[in-house]
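Work package 3, deliverable 3.1, input record:
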Amino acid sequence: MTRQKSPASRLNEDLSPLHWNDEAKAKLQLLDQRCLPNEERWLSYRDDAAVAEAIKTMVVRGAPAIGCAAAFALVLGAEGYPDDAQGFRHAFAASFERLAASRPTAVNLFWALDRQQKVMEHALASGADPRRALRDEALAIWREDIESCRQMGRHGAKLLGKDANVLTHCNAGALATGGYGTALGVIRAAHEAGQGVHVYADETRPYLQGARLTAWELQVSGIDVTLICDNMSGALMRQGAINTCIVGADRIAKNGDVANKIGTYMVAVLAARHGIPFYVAAPLSTIDLETADGDAIPIEERSAREVTHVGKERIAPEGVAVRHIAFDVTPAELVTAIITEAGVAEPPYEHSLPGLFSS
Ligand code: MRU
């Protein structure tokens, strides 16, 4: 892994948290999201173990972006696998397991790994070059994700209408996807269509994805944004300052229960209390029809240090007991609609979500 700083113009042209260069020695570059908004630092990767570590340590985060990074990690790994089919399979399985162990909640990770496994098996069975097949599939996963976000944007912008005041939580933007964004993609599309949109960004304790990433991303994109602390949204809803809530998702169960960044459930409860629509924007790769409901979604717990410290600064007494639940589940009954690239699903989700896969 090497460090380099890219010109800021590169971000403005094409806001994506990753770049792939076939000609480079270290072909994958990830924007180090731990350094934002203070520094735009790109890290270069040459092997799958380093990418697994980058996912674990939040260099790259956000469900679809994690999936894209994992798909490319397998391409890097494959460069060092033995040439014989059995040896290749064996080494692929080890990379797969390492990546699968990086983060548990975002299903896009497992979706991308499974997709690459199928491609690898097909290539080996048909005598095609598995390295080439994995590389082509990773690029397809990345491009399709950006296109899905744009489609979500087109569907979702219609729901926002004119002059929306939108609350969002965490970062579900270009930084969290292949590019463009899910929840922020909908906002971006409304902005591009000239509908007029203003965003309230929850700071999103403890990791501050809202303050560090969403506020930065919207500023860079020229979209009107006001940063608020997580505990301010209720008061703003009561004042009538917010008329729509939109968030991303890490995994959506078959019944429409939504796992997303911790604090999302509180936003949904408040939205229901104030009669404000609560939308979830996510690609089909985030919908997990194998998981019946939210209780079956694995929820990541992260280190206490992310709660007791802000950056290097300790803000809690030494030795205090801490819980750091990184995601919560919003029950389907609180979700007004789920915006995907294949269309907008409405309750009852047991019926509408499977239908999206056949449309
Ligand atoms: O812990 P993170 O930053 O990976 O969590 C990200 C979120 O919860 C996002 O809201 C979610 O992945 C949707 S991203 C389009």
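The radius of gyration is 20 Å.
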